[in-house]
Design a protein that fits this description.
It is built from three helices and no strands. The chain is mainly alpha-helical. The chain has one domain. It is elongated.
Length: 65
């Protein structure tokens, strides 16, 4: 097993055990960005936030090697 496999397994484990926390952090970050940009890019921010949460969820479902 190479170094990248170990890193991916660790990231997968962290995403699996901290999924709710990751979602909360992404939501809070999106809120801050919307507040600072006065909602000018709210649609894009929401889209990217959803993609980030889906990516973390997908990573959490990946089985370790």
């Amino acid at each position: 097993m190479g170094i990248f496999d170990k890193v991916r397994d660790k990231a997968s484990e962290l995403a699996r055990t901290n999924g709710a926390r990751i979602d909360q952090t992404v939501d809070r970050t999106a809120e801050v960005i919307n507040r600072r940009t006065q909602g000018k890019h709210a649609g894009k921010v929401q889209s990217y936030a959803e993609r980030a949460k889906e990516g973390a969820e997908r990573l959490g479902r990946r089985p370790p090697r």
